Amino acid sequence: MRKEKSGPFIAFVLLGSPEWDGTKCRSDLLEDWTITCPPDALSGRGDSLTFGMDGMVVAVRLIASRVPAGEAEYNAATNYLWPGAAEAASRHCAHLLVAVQGVGVEAMQVALLFAKVTSSCSRQAHTLGIYTSGTVFQPHFYRESAAVMKDGALPIFSWIHFGLYRTAAGCGGYTYGLHAFGMDELEVPGTAAEPAEVRTFLFDIVYYVLSGPVVLHNGEAIGFSAQQRLAITRSPGVALDGMTLKIEYPKD
Asked: From CA 4, how far away is CA 201, in angstroms rounded?
């Protein structure tokens, strides 16, 4: 199901020192993505970078304080691929607020620019992690994910966190980040499948949906072959607040 609004596309680049190099950020954007910032993009005080591009506005701002209420450290614990995420997040004392907005621009275009800018911002000397999509990503992981855009692929891992958990019913999984595209998050309730299999299953669906774009609806079915029909059910979330789309996991 698609919602009326998309966004916001926001990330917090966690820093171990309350400083950043705006000139380096401009240089990295040019080197990484051939994005040219105008001469006046960097503020006089050097604490922010703001510029427009193709109907979108990019804003990067240094905030010399921690992300409030221990939010980054708490959510870092969900990153099962990086055991040191919570510890790294606990050491931050400042952060870069990265935001990309568009008016009359498709969410996908905003998302692609957002991933590029966030990736380049992660190259700052004091970067500890990237807090976005409900978790904290390792800087080099984020950059590697974003780099697939150079080959024409979608940087799914730059936008979506694939959460996993176990219950008596087995392994469950969920997405966090599809709401920024104006879509419901996806969930796979408990299944006998291995965690890696659940994650790959959700990744394949997300890639299919975002590359379409495809809108999933309650009561319909999805499949990866002519014979496969996996039921889609919209109901209150199991691992997430609000309504989510439950995708039936293949039985074979």
From this structure: 27
Question: Given the structure tokens 């998302």, which residue do they identify?
Answer: 111
Q: Give the burial class of 4: count Cβ atoms within 10 A of its Cβ; 0-12 exposed, 13-18 middle, 19 or more buried.
A: exposed
> Sign of torsion, CA 203 204 209 215?
negative
Q: In whole angstroms, give the CA distance from residue 66 to residue 90.
A: 9
The burial of 219, by beta-carbon neighbours within 10 Å (0-12 exposed, 13-18 middle, 19 or more buried), is given as: exposed
Q: What would the pLDDT profile of 58-106 be if each residue is shown by its tens digit?
A: 999 999 999 999 999 999 999 999 999 999 999 999 999 999 999 889 9
Query: What order do you get walking across the sheet with 9-15 strand by strand?
Result: 48-53, 56-63, 94-102, 9-15, 127-132, 135-137
Contact between 156 and 181 under an 8 Å Cβ cutoff? The reply is no
pTM of model > 0.90? yes
Angle at 89 between CA 86 and CA 120, to 5 degrees: 125
The per-residue pLDDT for 110 is 97
Q: Whole-angstrom Cα distance, residue 156 to residue 210?
A: 9
- CA distances from residue 114 to 107, 152, 167, 236 in whole angstroms, order as listed: 10, 16, 35, 30
CB 192 within 8 A of CB 170: yes
Q: What is the pLDDT of residues 3-57, one digit of tens each?
A: 656 788 999 999 999 999 999 999 999 999 999 999 899 998 889 999 999 999 9
Angle at 3 (CA atoms; ends 180, 210), nearest 5 degrees: 55
